[in-house]
Design a protein that fits this description.
With 261 residues, the protein is of the alpha/beta class. It is 25% helix and 25% strand. It is built from six helices and 13 strands. The strands form three sheets. It has a nine-stranded mixed beta sheet with strand order 3-4-2-1-5-6-7-13-8, sandwiched between helices. Strands 9-12 form a two-stranded antiparallel sheet. Helix 4 links the parallel strand 6 and strand 7. The longest helix is centred in the last third of the chain and has 15 residues.
Length: 261
């Protein structure tokens, strides 16, 4: 390892996904990079971890790339846990995840494996950045990777508050170039369920594809959802910490405890 900062690179689309190659390529000159990513796609697994089967770490050869790459037959959170405790020679200065194929703006962060990898690092005191790209079916990663070095450099040079990480989303570029980058707030939109009932041809029992449909809201003009629609890349500082609703606790504590005891 050199005197450069050490960055852990991961994702949820899998170690052979195009997005992670572009993420690595965009920042390979900024830091020493070690990639630890899922063996297969693990989209929408959130912070789940593997506890009922063994995990394996394997060295991976990225053809024509001088990269230090490892795969784990588990979730993004598993990858970060094993990277920090088994693979990495020292504690990384930063964890980056992505580039995810599809948006993780708004409330999609609660389902995202891309974001969950960063959350796992934050819970262990390591800041991070999740990168996602709105073009799902035909992502042209080269159009967005040029924005990544500045964001990563800023994170390396400016300490984040404890428990804070950055959720970065790039807009669809099919309608024109990205207009700029905005530090902003989280919107409300997310992919909701849309169950489709089907019939097994032999057993005659019903089964479902969960499906999805967009749950849309009136969004604030300073939200990531609103700005992405306007063609801006968005960066939302999210916080992992005490989830207690303290106002509810103070208001209801005496009445609740009197009622149930």
């Amino acid at each position: 390892m050199s005197s450069k900062p050490l960055i852990l690179v991961t994702n949820d689309d899998g170690v052979h996904a195009k997005g992670i190659r572009h993420l690595w390529q965009s920042i390979q000159d900024l830091a020493d990079l070690i990639i630890v990513a899922p063996q297969q796609e693990q989209s929408a697994v959130s912070l789940s971890i593997t506890v009922r089967r063994p995990l394996h770490i394997e060295k991976v050869d990225w053809l024509n790339a001088q990269a230090d790459v490892w795969s784990v037959n588990g979730t993004p959170a598993d990858c970060v846990k094993l990277a920090l405790n088994v693979v990495l020679p020292k504690r990384p200065q930063l964890i980056v995840s992505g580039i995810n194929r599809g948006t993780n703006a708004g409330r999609n962060v609660f389902y995202s494996g891309t974001v969950a990898a960063i959350m796992e690092g934050v819970m262990q005191g390591i800041p991070g950045i999740a990168f996602s790209y709105g073009d799902y079916f035909n992502p042209s990663y080269h159009l967005v990777e040029t924005f990544i070095p500045a964001i990563v450099n800023y994170a390396l040079q400016n300490a984040m508050q404890e428990g804070t990480f950055l959720n970065v989303n790039f807009p669809k570029t099919e309608h024109g170039p990205i207009k700029g980058i905005r530090l902003t707030t989280q919107g409300k939109e997310y992919w909701a369920e849309n169950p489709e009932k089907r019939q097994h041809p032999a057993e005659q029992n019903s089964y479902y594809w969960l499906g999805s449909k967009l749950a849309e809201y009136d969004e604030r003009e300073d939200s990531d959802i609103f700005l992405l629609r306007k063609g801006f890349a968005t960066v939302v500082p999210l916080h992992i910490g005490d989830l207690t609703n303290h106002s509810h606790l103070l208001k209801e504590k005496q009445a609740f405890e009197t009622f149930v005891n």
